[in-house]
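User: I'm putting together notes for a lab meeting next week and I want to include a structural view of one of the chains we've been expressing. I don't have a solved structure, so I'd like a prediction I can at least talk through. The sequence is below, exactly as it appears in our construct file.
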Amino acid sequence: MKLELRGITKRFGPLVANDAVDLTVESGQIHALLGENGAGKSTLMNVLFGLYQPDEGEILLDDVPQHFSGPGQAMAAGIGMVHQHFMLIPVFTVAENVILGHEPSRGGVLDLPAARSLVREISDRFGFDIDPDAVVGDLPVGAQQRVEIIKALARDARVLVLDEPTAVLTPQETDELMATMRRLADGGTSIVFITHKLREVRAVADTITVIRLGRVVGEASPTATNDELAALMVGRAVELTVHKDPPRLGAEALVVENLTVFGPAGERLLDDVSFTIRAGEVLAVAGVQGNGQTELTEALVGLRDRVQGSIRLDGEELSSAHVRHVLDSGVGFVPEDRKVDGLVAEFTVAENLMLDRSFAGPFTKGPAIDFDHRDRFADEAIAEFDIRTPHRDVLVGRLSGGNQQKVVLARELGRDLKLFVASQPTRGVDVGSIEFIHERIVQIRDSGIPVLIISTELDEVVALADRIAVMYRGAIIDIVPADAPRERLGRLMAGVHE
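Assistant: Thanks for the context. Below is the predicted structure for the 498-residue chain, given as structure tokens.
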């Protein structure tokens, strides 16, 4: 089935999320829609899927205009969408999830054998190896994603939209997904592949459309270089390679021994974790999201209260310390969700830059805030970190994601550091800001400060790390050199210890 979007425009008040977007996906083609977070990719696909109504433009399938008032009509027309966050019910079986909403019946009774047969037929046709009676919550993430694809194909989807499909996959699961996409395309399914990952685009796409700030800014072939694609995404040349010298290692600085974190019911969320980081070293933690990374960072900075084990920084025990004491001890912390834990959107840039330091010098003079010092610090930070803001008194919630992240970095690096902890440091950040953030992290490491990076982006882990710790189900399964093969890292991320 051929898909055409002509002049699609979608506004949200004064914000133009999609601006006269044209897109053509031929039958049996894998068409990558490449762009930064916030570029308008998902909005465009939500218009296609009937979740949003376009303000202007039209949708055509095999040259026939379509008008979708909701997802049901889009699915009936042959459009399927696999969302970034799966729409599955964990306690249901595969077959039950696949037929949910369009249940087959025989004599007024649910026909589960027909559902099982449908799942087996699709699974066998595309080599998915999915048991229709398996409980979805017991399946690995990659298998759950295949269930989502089976759901779409069960409704005769001839155009399949995959929205950031590799965000929660190991490298091996990503390779399996790419092979699945190629089999689907060879069978005539048209695929729209939404992503911001250049490596994957070049590996699987037949053609690439780049979208920036809601507009199509160019098309490219998979033979385009990463630098060429990044320049289209950002609008300028970008240095994608992280340049760093071999580490100049000092003494052991952070020593974590037998660290265990318990949940409300006494379950182990972090299980007997031990590692060290030396001065001037980057230890990067790899793993699929949800394997204990959040609990690890929260325990390190004093945000968890059910903790056993030892955390020593330059010999000082911090395992039972309050978060304020941890930060005052010289720990800089970039949380994984800047909007929830890193910033107050209704505060100004200047106010956010002193958030956790407003109770003591140098930001106070007696019992009051020293506004002159705060404003000087803010102006210097804005200049040093290239924070794109008209003024220090602009509300931080009005900045782009990359500039918000720079505010967090500037605040955390504006203190005397003994340790820098950054969780998902470039999540939701444009390529240009990624370049800047990576450079700063290398500078911190080269100044002799130990650095702990937690990232689900394997390319980022490999680029920044001196050593890599791989987490699986709340434990560190192994610590390997930064030049370990990606295949080995992928096996470790899937829980396969060698």
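A couple of points you could mention at the meeting. The domain at 252-493 is CATH 3.40.50.300 (Rossmann fold). The mean pLDDT is 89.

User: Perfect, that's what I needed.
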